[in-house]
Design brief:
The longest helix is centred in the last third of the chain and has 22 residues. This protein is globular. Helices cover 51% and strands 7% of the residues. It has 17 helices and 5 strands. Strands 2-3-4-1-5 form a 5-stranded parallel sheet, with helices on both faces. The protein has 378 residues and is α/β, with parallel strands linked by helices. Bound molecules: zinc ion. Zinc ion binds next to helix 3.
């Protein structure tokens, strides 16, 4: 991965270059950014830059032996750790190495891989992913060895939020790292990481990607024309993952639309029996199908907002979607839209973090009911 392959983040790339040139690299860094901002690819590019034997113009060369190994995520001094589910026989001591081939495959195909994509690739189903205590001991063993290339040894840990108490095992090493060792922790939230880890690391904030760069990605990756790309870019809110999800939402009416429209009707009416039937149906869907309900919902909600401003959706909508937007908008105002948007976003986040789907949707409908019918909850 090279800096030039990463969308936006210009000033951050510059800071990283200066950090490397000044040889003042903190031994532990938390690369903190929302999903899809590029915190993971940036850390990969920085690691490549540090190992590259002949960097040019402030970037790795992309041609040397080290760059070649990094491109395949196979550099011997780059240790990868990430949440995994236990394979049968491993019990609570699942190791990242059991899924290393899958991880390399996912990231080389798309460095902006989401956690939900990763769970699906491991076929996690309803199993919980974690970074286990056994994994931490394994990493300590590996990092205590001499660097193969005589350069930095780098531990890149994706989602240290999944360490839980197992992270205590790493504290001593974070405090007194073996010589030439760097810890790159790629995270979205610091409040889900042990405070003792956070306090030993320097936090590097990765901001949302600039809108112009999202527009460039829409042109290059999704083949939109420039005008359309500029109009759509703000909807991605600075995240390439969100951008891809928006592009994946069906243009036609799919099951996601039907189930979302039904959910809003149920949230308004508060009727229990049809809600139970709806929850049964949603529980049967896989995680991706459940996510789609919420993504479609966010898209339709934007349609409502535009409708209320007298504008029609930027994306083409079909008749049944338009009928829903026109009808539903009559029950909304701006504060309600904001609240529903927030509730859908939160549900999406929890779903991606493997929440129990039936419980999650049940709670969501209750909260939506409070938002839509505040007069019944006073
Ligand atoms: Zn190189």
């Amino acid at each position: 991965m090279q800096f030039t392959q990463i969308y936006g983040q210009t000033s951050l790339k510059e800071s990283l270059r200066k950090m490397a040139e000044g040889k003042q690299i903190p031994h532990a860094m938390i690369w903190l950014g929302e999903d899809g901002t590029g915190n993971l690819p940036l850390a990969l590019a920085f690691a490549t830059f540090l190992h590259c034997s002949s960097p040019v113009h402030g970037d790795s060369c992309g041609r040397c032996d080290a760059c070649g190994k990094h491109a395949r995520l196979m550099h011997p001094d780059m240790h990868l750790s990430f949440p995994v589910i236990g394979k049968s026989g491993e019990g609570g001591g699942a190791l990242s190495t059991s899924y290393l081939a899958e991880f390399r495959q996912a990231l080389t195909a798309n460095p902006y891989t989401s956690f939900a994509d990763w769970l699906q690739l491991m076929e996690a189903g309803n199993k919980q992913a974690s970074i286990s205590r056994a994994e931490c001991y394994d990493l300590m063993g590996r990092l205590s060895l001499t660097a193969y290339s005589g350069s930095w040894k780098i531990l890149l840990m994706w989602m240290p939020e999944f360490l839980g108490q197992a992270g205590n095992v790493l504290l001593k090493m974070l405090e007194e790292p073996p010589p030439g060792t760097l810890f790159f922790l790629i995270a979205t939230r610091t409040d889900h990481i042990l405070p003792t880890i956070v306090s030993r690391a320097q936090v590097l904030r990765v901001p949302p990607i600039e809108s112009e760069e999202i527009a460039r990605a829409l042109v290059e990756l999704h083949h939109l024309d420039e005008g359309e790309a500029r109009a759509q870019a703000p909807l991605a809110e600075g995240s390439l993952i969100k951008m891809r999800q928006l592009m994946e939402v069906d243009d036609g009416v799919g099951l996601g639309d039907t189930l979302f429209m039904e959910m809003m009707r149920l949230s308004y009416s508060g009727k229990v029996a049809p809600l139970m039937a709806w929850l049964d149906q949603v529980s049967e869907l896989g995680r991706e199908g459940q996510k789609k309900i919420l993504l479609v919902g966010l898209d339709l909600l934007r349609g409502c907002l535009l409708e209320m401003h007298g504008a029609r959706a930027l994306r083409p909508v079909v008749a049944s979607q338009q009928a829903f937007i026109s009808g539903f908008s009559r029950f909304l105002n701006i504060p309600k839209i904001n609240r529903i948007h927030k509730q859908l976003q939160e549900a999406l986040l929890h779903l991606e973090r493997n929440a129990h789907a039936r419980l999650l949707f049940h709670n969501l409908v209750n909260r939506l009911h409070e938002t839509l019918r505040p007069e019944l909850h006073q």
